[in-house]
């Protein structure tokens, strides 16, 4: 028995220590050597960061279309959420969207572009000013940020630029509703020859004059941005949407008419 114990000790001492990749934060679950630099780009200077699995970042296991990759962030289990940022470490434009839920749940679903295999993450600012980060790796064929938008290829984007479509769902007696928005926009990254960057850069949502949410978008959001949020609404309230793109074109619209939330919705 003593010989076996001594032998086991020798094996343990000889076992190699697996170190984090050079440059990676040792506490990063995804072990990305790029994260320290990316955090400096997408978060405020000096931001305090920790990893927290209460932030649920969900997306498909396979990126079937790197131009339209759906990402859902659910931070409702975290108290005092102030902001949510969605970003991809290895995209040329890392930050996709910054969402401020003034009078809404800490939940957002959106589609982004992917330029290569990369971690896709969310950073959630909480009441004390620190940030909680979570995410996962996704394999992608690449080119999502450098391929021309479909509307550019068809040449029909200008006829319906900034056109808003939306729908509301709610449950009687409950304040939490579901809001789906889609805005017609090419979301040009500037990485296509002879096509300058041009994107929808902001959306603001109100109900009866009350501020529900602010969104700041970047060109790494997918063409014709499609967004799902969970605002707090009273029965019969509608949502007023205002926006602006990087060329100064403005959007103004209203989403009204609430139907029942589908069974099984998160």
TrEMBL record:
Record carries keyword NAD: no
UniProt cross-references to Gene3D superfamilies, sorted A to Z: Immunoglobulins (2.60.40.10), SoxY domain (2.60.40.2470)
Annotated ranges, domain Sulphur oxidation protein SoxZ: 176-248
Record InterPro entries: Fuse-rel_SoxYZ, Ig-like_fold, Ig_E-set, SoxY, SoxY_sf, SoxZ_dom
Keyword set, alphabetical order: Signal
Name of the protein: Quinoprotein dehydrogenase-associated SoxYZ-like carrier
Pfam families, A to Z: SoxY, SoxZ
Residues annotated as signal peptide: 1-19
NCBIfam families: fuse_rel_SoxYZ (TIGR04557)
